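Troubleshooting log. The previous run stalled partway through. Resubmitting the same two chains, unchanged.
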Amino acid sequence: MDFTLTVLGTASAKPSTARYQSAQVLTVHGRSFLIDCGEGVQVRLQEARISLLKIESVFISHIHGDHVFGLFGLLSTMGMMSRTKPLVIYGPVSLGPILKFFLSYYGDGIPFEVVHKPLNVKSPEVIYSSKSLSVSAFPLNHKIETFGFIFREKEPQINVKKWKIEEYALTLTEIGSVKRGEDVRRTLPDGSLLVLPVSELGYKPYRGRSYAYCSDTAPFGDESEWVKGVDLLYHETTYLASQADLAALRYHSTTLQAASCALEAGVGKLVIGHYSSRNRDSAVYEAECRTIFPETYAAQDGSVFDLPLVRFPV
Amino acid sequence: MDFTLTVLGTASAKPSTARYQSAQVLTVHGRSFLIDCGEGVQVRLQEARISLLKIESVFISHIHGDHVFGLFGLLSTMGMMSRTKPLVIYGPVSLGPILKFFLSYYGDGIPFEVVHKPLNVKSPEVIYSSKSLSVSAFPLNHKIETFGFIFREKEPQINVKKWKIEEYALTLTEIGSVKRGEDVRRTLPDGSLLVLPVSELGYKPYRGRSYAYCSDTAPFGDESEWVKGVDLLYHETTYLASQADLAALRYHSTTLQAASCALEAGVGKLVIGHYSSRNRDSAVYEAECRTIFPETYAAQDGSVFDLPLVRFPV
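Second attempt completed without errors. Output:
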């Protein structure tokens, strides 16, 4: 029952030998979701021991090269590895012609369907839903059309307390009601109604976990509201506090802006990355963020952030 | 007066953490020429401490992804580094639409002219010429249109022996003749002709060095003739001798085929690479080649092959 973020690249536009460009994998219940796809992502995936064939789908924030140039090699290698399952790529409308051109030239080597789902949302909307996960997209505030994503583990079905089954001799029908979150209602022999509340009979085994991805973006009004209360927030910090002018000019965020968003949104943890090549030491980024939001962690290429299952007391 | 090959990637189609895809740099007299451009080339260039801004021009053998997917990131980063000098990319006609599409989407970030010189040769033809170097292209035998390249250092101007200047009291005009490779002819007072042969008065300070690049290709009839006598031959060896069927099917070469070409061509050294991901140990490739051509070296990512200046005896 994993819910684990692996950060594959932490550079902004210009990569280095230590920092590749933006790419992350969120693994939820054994399924991997790739978020952005900077150059070299397929090698970083190998380093992180995440099988390319386990990638369920891909989420692209925007089409700047440092977020998409790894896609071509990734798709080609998936093709060589004989993937047959269709691959859905969620991304801006502008990603469409890029994929189309790529497939027109290199499609012979791609024995699986590549499905582009163009994003067109003005506020958070669910774009993906499975048994265990839903993903919402929302617009960010960058130079070009850019989207953030929130991954929410779905709340599991209610478990019925075994000793309550015995105590009340619950029938299968009644157990079914509890699992659906409904109170049990019994008509007693004297015609009166007995209500056994679901809160007494059942319990949620664990709480759904959540992760929000915000890159690339300058701060904007709705941001903290849209990512409110997530367990883990990744927020770009291209620049240090002293580089606020550059950040504004290029529609990026500083450390303090990202930390303020985390604080306002009341998130659990803040992970930062997308460091400008001007600033080599990520410890400085982390220290600046921690003046506002102490639970900040500066990601490195290969950093893993595991959100453990939070079981409710029974 | 360097003439140095740096191999940046030695994988065939599927890269690994240790082996990136095809890319090499030949540095001649301080100028760097990039040959093929697999994904991650810009990071490998950094690792090899070769400045992206020193790249004079690019030579692309063919448009398979493992030879070109690093081009987009490379051009983008050159743009961010404010290159202004035009960049000439020699490559097949089919590279044109790829570059055109890339520039239509990402051209705003490229503040220099990208000039595609389409190749269209049936046998070795000079496609680049400078004071110190000429480059010829010739067709290889691959699934799609593919070219090999020969880089030849130009023979330097003839030096005039100082003691001969004194011995014969050579005039400036006569010295000019020797430098151009002409004999000196003097009419003596008695009307007779004195011929002082250039071979006595001058000498070539060093011999021009040469490098040939053959990837990707199956063997073909003219190959060893076309690369005859080069000092250094890079020849792909995607497959081991036992995988000759696969090699033929996919228009690649085995170790023995590459080594036979080197032997027939009488080259100085053979460098091999483009190893299939099926075979992890390059020492096996090297050993197989050496049964035919002992001067074989299995390249690794980052291998450097330096051809020292060969001075003629004066």
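Takeaways: The CA atoms of residues 42 and 73 of chain B lie 7 Å apart. The mean pLDDT of chain B is 96.
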